Amino acid sequence: GVARDYRFKILAGPTSAADWMIVGQVHQTNETGYATLSAPLEWNLDGTSLKLEKRVDADQPPSGNPSPTEVYSFTPNRGQEYHVRIECTMGPSGDGSLVVDLDGVEVVNETSYAIGYYAAGYYPKFGLYREPADENQAVIFSDFTVTYDAVGTNELDNSGNIDESPWDSINGAVRTADA
């Protein structure tokens, strides 16, 4: 599995009117012949509630874009920094796991867990992704670390090398979604 440790802060501003606004995700690599799918693990800011959602499809290739299932949610205070640690092993047939700590408190601990798709790899992706809305939103991400266990992490590039490039360009970055 892979552990991702980072901090984020949703800046002060209006409540999002968008039906969905993704504030970070673990995405799968796109495979030849597979449909483009939504991320199998994401934080979705739905109004004032921040929901950790998962998707799973054990078919190979996936049979469609599955609807998300809520794993955990809380109401973040805008302007407050949060420390998140996610340990995840994708396993669409029920052989995965997911452990999430929020500010040092374990809020999710699932083993023998169905999560993800059959894909060559997974990678972290941070930024704001949302449907069109009239208000501006901003999030600051910082202090990223990623820890890999032994071979077989699911977060490898097509050559079998650990792909840390998504982390290199975003440490301390402000991501915004303009109206």
Q: How large is the radius of gyration?
A: 16 Å
User: Sheet bearing the most strands, described?
Assistant: 6 strands, antiparallel
Shape assignment: globular
Distance linking N and C termini: 37 Å
SS-based structural class? mainly beta
- Tell me what portion of residues adopts beta-strand conformation: over 45%
Spans with pLDDT under 50 lasting ≥5 residues?
150-179
Supply the key terms.
2% helix; 5-stranded antiparallel beta sheet; 179 residues; single chain; globular; 11 strands; mainly beta; 1 helix
Task: Tell me about this structure.
2% of the residues lie in helices and 51% in strands. It is mostly beta strands and 179 residues long. The strands form two sheets. Strands 8-7-6-1-10-11 form a six-stranded antiparallel sheet, with no helix packed on it. Strands 5-4-3-2-9 form a five-stranded antiparallel sheet, with no helix packed on it.
Provide a brief overview of the structure.
The protein is mainly beta and 179 residues long. It has 1 helix and 11 strands. Strands 8-7-6-1-10-11 form a 6-stranded antiparallel beta sheet, with no helix packed on it.
